[in-house]
Task: structure prediction
Amino acid sequence: MTNLQLWTYCVVGATFALYIFIAIKARAGTTGEFYVAGKGVHPVLNGMATGADWMSAASFISMAGLIAFKGYDASVYLMGWTGGYCLLAMLLAPYLRKYGKFTVPEFIGDRFYSQTARVVAVICLIVASLTYVIGQMKGIGVAFSRFLEIPFNYGLFLGMGIVFIYAVLGGMKGVTYTQIAQYCVLIFAYTVPAIFISLQLTGVALPQLGLGAAMSDGSGMFLLEKMDKTLVDLGFAAYTTQKGSTLNMFLLTMSLMIGTAGLPHVITRFFTVPKVKDARSSAGWALVFIAILYTTAPGVGAMARLNLVNTIQADSIAPDTSQNLKIDALPAWFTNWEKTGLLKYEDKNGDGRIQYVGKNFKGVDANGKIIENEMVKVDRDIMVLANPEIAQLPNWVIALVAAGGIAAALSTAAGLLLAISSAISHDIVKGIIAKNIDDKTELMAGRVAMSGAILVAGYLGLHPPGFAAQVVALAFGLAASSIFPALMMGIFAKRVNNTGAVLGMLAGLGTTLVYIFWFKGWFFLPGTAMAPDNAANWVLGISPGSFGAVGAVINFIVALTVSSFTAPPPEHIQHLVEDIRVPMGAGAAVDH
Amino acid sequence: MNDARKYWQANIRLVIGCLVVWFVVSFGCGIFFVQQLNTITILGGYPLGFWFAQQGSIYSFVVLIFFYAWRMNQLDKKFNVSED
Result:
């Protein structure tokens, strides 16, 4: 066993022991504890748990990679995945907490006095959450198989087992306290290597400032200036300039923001605090903890890209390739990632060295052969995980990154599985099928639903459908076009009635689904797309992933128009809306 | 006009004000006017528009939520609808 593997086993093993210890300490005894942790979580701690819940394998592993390769254009993810918290704090969280029930579909069903609305909300919730879980399961498997060098399946089973222990036993209570621990692990794991690398490159410890600072290599250039120059010299697009269309950037950012505010597993987190005013501040704390990672990520992305380029193109200007990375002297991280298939090269000009250039590069090597890009595959997802190895940081830091990636994936998976299981046991079993079951039976149903959800998620993780990567657009599209507008109108538009709300949700949902399926294939079946998925075919240049915001607007218009032509909601519903608008009298959790 | 309506209107005004700032720092500075702002650099070598898109908007969101929570607590007390 290598020194790195030993470190990884120790660090990952220690974090797992911690999660199980918390699970045993925080066992749920009532449905209130199972669904919303008894509404007794301090707002700062709840914010921390929300941070871990929100920051998935995608935030931890993929985002910095996206930034590294897209530069400025990746800002849509940074703004989109944080700006939604303003909408949550100001438009949804305090009112839903005041309402004081357990699930998102329950509020929609009660406010629009309609089982249909509740069922539509449950379906959106389950599809959006399951979509998301697949990615987490895959993230866990990848982290295990790379760092512990065990088969992907075993890593996945181990992850499922750990989630099973604390989510089934502890419900929201167990999940919340484990997420707090997982936040600490993941943020430590993310920031420590970032600080090391920022110090190496700029001499400034904070990556937030290092990204704007001058290089410490004596070139006298600022890091971003150096990025732009290096990339352009090598024929890549400049780092800080815009590549996509402005309209699409605007709509994608808006869709991600509205989608974030409409994702049920995030909203549910604000049901767990003691008071309405805690729901407001807790959204702020959640964003503080999220911002620590999200403001570090741009530094990580840029510095990882620069290190990667400089490692391969040692003397960045390409015509002289005599300093480039030699194929018979590849560093260990390179050969390790090559084994996973996520990194691949081809020595096209046969000079025994690797050239890494963009498609705009024109030049010939010493033998007069045209220089082409020889890094045929650099998967974006390896950037964060490989970053500390590329920068030659100590092994304990690399082990920490593995533990952090696993913590990020586990904490999000648990939050999603909880949202799915409570929708099944509370909204479907208790709300529709068997209204008279007692608390104990419902708790049992919750645990059975959770176990079922873990098995389904595990199966999908092992056999990911071919469209796994594309369905993220679907999750955000569903949340943005159906759930967020329904919740917002439920609170701010007293006049919206059941017909308006149901038709609005179906119109928003329908148009968004059709637009996504039109370009990606009906139900993502290969070969059924109606038009090629590229900017030339998109309506007004709007990509399928950006359509959620348009779907939301359609939902608002349909719901408000239909409601104004049909009967107003009954008096007791209007009173209900007036009641949730004031914090007074929130009280503890009430169930029916 | 009764107190409940005044409270709600004060709340709506506050939310609109906060959302205008929310829109300006992200969509305004980070997307629509990014090129104009990029002619200015801050904190060493950050082009200002780029800084807003990848750093400044996020800091502003945090400040906005706490400002909103603080003002709402004041309104709750003023109109006597606080939970305590």
Chain B has a mean pLDDT of 91. Chain B is about 75% helix and 5% strand. The beta strands of chain B are 41-42, 46-47. Chain B has one domain: 3-78.
